[in-house]
Write a structure and sequence with these properties.
Layout (H helix, E strand, L loop, with lengths): L17 H8 L29 H4 L15 H14 L3 H11 L1 H11 L21 H6 L12
Helix pairs in contact: 4-5
Length: about 150
């Protein structure tokens, strides 16, 4: 099960992030040069992306953005649009789901939605690959993104 602390205040499921998965699997040993990230909350940043523009997030006054009167704010809408367009996920949808159904139900849904059909690992939202099964695809093309032809 995904840890509760891996859901950032902005609605990002950090366990899907390439920087988190690289660190979890220590993939720099395979020739990559990427900064590892344990997630926003585990590293004490509340929300790395929006903390400097949102006093409530920066000071940890809210756990999730939906607790704010300005939800969804302009900055979150911009982030959400980029993630919906490029990475097949929506922070705003995630936050609305958590608000309506609770964090535990969200985590269960995420486990199913992002589970690799081959090994049961977690698919990365930034490239659509399971970094257990498809690491060779990423080794051959370090800039691999969704919808490119997969080769094993």
């Amino acid at each position: 099960m995904i840890e509760e602390d891996l859901v950032a205040p902005c609605g990002m499921n950090c366990s899907l992030c390439i920087s988190y998965q690289f660190g979890k699997n220590d993939l720099n040993k395979k020739g990559f040069h990427r900064t590892y990230c344990p997630g926003c909350i585990p590293r004490g940043k509340n929300c790395t992306y929006m903390k400097s523009t949102c006093d409530k997030l920066g000071k940890g006054k809210v756990r999730f953005c939906f607790e704010c009167d300005d939800f969804p704010c302009k900055r979150l809408k911009i982030l959400d649009k980029r993630y919906r367009t490029k990475y097949h996920m929506s922070m705003i949808e995630n936050l609305n789901y958590i608000k309506e159904n609770g964090l535990e139900a969200f985590l269960r849904e995420e486990e199913l939605k992002w589970r690799c059909s081959q090994c049961g690992g977690t698919v990365c939202c930034h490239n659509g690959l399971c970094l257990n099964c498809n690491i060779n695809t990423l080794i051959r093309n370090k800039k691999y993104r969704w919808n490119e032809e997969k080769t094993k």
